[in-house]
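name: query_chain
kind: protein
chains: 1
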Amino acid sequence: MTLKIRPVAGKGEIRICLSGQLRSEHFDQLKSEVEGGGSTVTLDLEELDLVDIDGVRFLNECESAGVSVLHCSLYIREWMVRERGRPKARHNKIKKREQK
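structure:
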């Protein structure tokens, strides 16, 4: 399954609705949509079925940059919170172990 990205213009904002599976191969396209949306962008995850660890990190980066994340399932939100609490140095160690 792929990711469907559907921008919806509203009153002074852009809502980007995501459907399907968020994976790293979608980040370039999604970043372009977010950056092209102006100052008020919202990601709507109501129809998002699956996200991987890179997707969780991407969503955290979006929130840190001021992008609102709406209708996020409980498991994704909890994963985002846990991931924000992990030291970044640990991420690098894990990636190095995976590469070996």
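note: Residues 21 and 50 are 5 Å apart (CA to CA).
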